Amino acid sequence: MSRDQQLPSIISRAQDITKTPPLFKVLMHNDDYTTMEFVVEVLQSIFHQSDTAAERIMLAIHFQGLGHCGTYPFAIAETKVEEVCSRARKAGYPLRCSIEKE
Fold it and tell me: Taking 60 as the threshold, does the pLDDT of residue 73 lie above it?
């Protein structure tokens, strides 16, 4: 078998290996206890949102019941949800986040 015959199979395998991972949306849910200030602070510190974006997302959470905080590969999305829930519990809030496939 010549070298030219092996090349296409190697290239196709390399393309299979480098596929981008699926992305997941992190969603924050509204509740009657968590303060708007706390939600904005979490959006800024954990999701690295600007002041304006954090306020816009917080208002969506407040008025629509759900807000999209960011889109990440699964492991990162899961870690961010755990960070939010941990910080909320320490502060005494029942804030809830979920992950949804994009």
Answer: yes
CATH code for residues 21-101: 3.30.1390.10
25-55 burial code (b ≥16 CB/10 A, e <16) = ebbbebeeebeeebbbebbeebbebeeebbb
Q: Give 42-66 pLDDT, tens digit per residue.
A: 999 999 999 999 999 999 999 999 9
- Using CA atoms, how far apart are residues 81 and 86, in angstroms rounded to an integer? 8
Beta strands 66-73 and 96-101, pairing class: unpaired
